[in-house]
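Example record

The entry below shows one chain as it appears in the dataset: sequence first, then structure tokens.
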Amino acid sequence: MLNKSVEQAISWFLYVGVTFTTVFLVTDAVTDPVNVTKLTAAGGVAFAVFMIAVIQGRQGLRASSRPLLLVLTLFVIAMLNAVFASKSPLSQNIYGLYGRQTALVFYLIMAMIAIGASLLRRSNSFERIVKALFIAGGLNVLYCAWALAFGDFIGWNNPYRNILGLFGNPDFISAFLGMFIAGVIGYIAAPGKKWSIRIIGAVTSLLAFYEIHRSQAIQGKAVTAAGLAIVGFYWVRSKFKGFFATLSYLTVIFIVGVLALAGALQKGPLAHYIYKTSVSLRGQYWQAAINAGTSHPFSGVGMDSFGDWYRRMRTEYAATVLPGPATITNAAHNVVLDFFASGGWPLLITYLATIALGIWVVLRVTFRSRTYDGIFVALAATWACYEIQSVISINQAGLAIWGWVLLGALVAYEFVTRTTASPEMAPGKSNKVKIKPDSVFSPQLVGGIGVVIGVLIAVPPLSADMKWKSALKSQQLVKVEAALQSGYMQPTSSMRLAQAVQMFEQSKLPDQAYTYAKKGVEFNPDYSDAWKMLYFSSKATEADKTMALENLKRLDPFNPDVLKN
């Protein structure tokens, strides 16, 4: 039986930490205000709950989380296989690309959060996860409303003037608001909710949907529709006995879903309303990711290394027609295919296993009762919305943390609603049994130590970016060169090396430019821009130019003019 204080500590760390990760930003001190900051915050909460779970909640993990532990262990092994087999830089495999940071450390953090959440046991612990979603969503709704009404007070680089939320991206904020709407409606639709709560929830959801519309990102509307359809299924199922009403509802939803999918593919009556050119672009990105995975079936190309391979893996049509030679990407815009490209079949299969586990526990809870359970519906609908948006989008810590914490929470929910579960541990009841702690240290102290460890492990990209931003502001050669030095707190970046070459050339420092151009191709010989920097370096020899041109053609075989694009 799980110690009550252990579960309470995990519950509060998740409640505060997941909310904080979603909204946390640093602006002036960094060049990337979103990814490196949210990764650091997620690292703190992940190590906190994971250390509490493995040190003081082992019995609970063995009781409820064995399938989850097995799947995530295999998932981590598959990632390590991708890291060690990859020819990409080790720091890139560990911390990821600048502007993404979705590599080994990122997914270790997400797995730890899922494991910690799988130890939730009481109704108010699950409700805290739902409330955390409401707080994070509410803050984003308020921020977006302010930006629409009065202008954005954060100095984003935002040429399209779309709302960005606290995610720094219109696609991410629209998807998150869609998840938020599904969670809110799922929760307030439960019988017995106060009308004041329902009115506030409904009004906030309508405002959130208006903001989705203003984001001009179609995926938010798709996520909202899918989430409401899931909530509607549970409501119809609870209101009508027998299968006719539920079957009729599912039939209508299936038909609408097929028409919507056809519209996204530029077919059928909804094509005019749903199709966007970005859908065709995503199709080309997906094909390149499939090519990357199939060309490296047992290990992939390395964690967060798809960008180094995109030019080689894209089709001739993609390189010459749509989207053309100048358009490149470092993500497949499909999380599932990103895993396939990064780690081949082992990573793809183990990640799909986590999704299958989530579906399995949701179905088990669903078939146990026809009663509408607002907390469960909110958890399940929001998790499903995350998985739906992940097949057309990119991962980011502020979004991904919800998919993983909800996976763990659903595993826990399935466990505590089994007929064999202890009555005092069932949702809606408090655990009054006093159990001696498994350790002389309190769970809060263990979690606090975990926060420190997690931040120290996740902070290097943030530290490096802060140092780089400071060097750029100073415009001092010594500081720029110091910011390019690698180390534990300073993982090297291909992008920074290439940017430094341009800076030195523009500053009439050709020797330094040439030095860092050579370091760039040595650090990552599969980074196309590094070879381009070397080719155009004023100090480059004919041998350098010949070698650079050969590698540019190697990395971009279908491009007719590798020096121009």
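Notes for this example: The longest helix spans residues 335-368. The chain has a mean pLDDT of 92.
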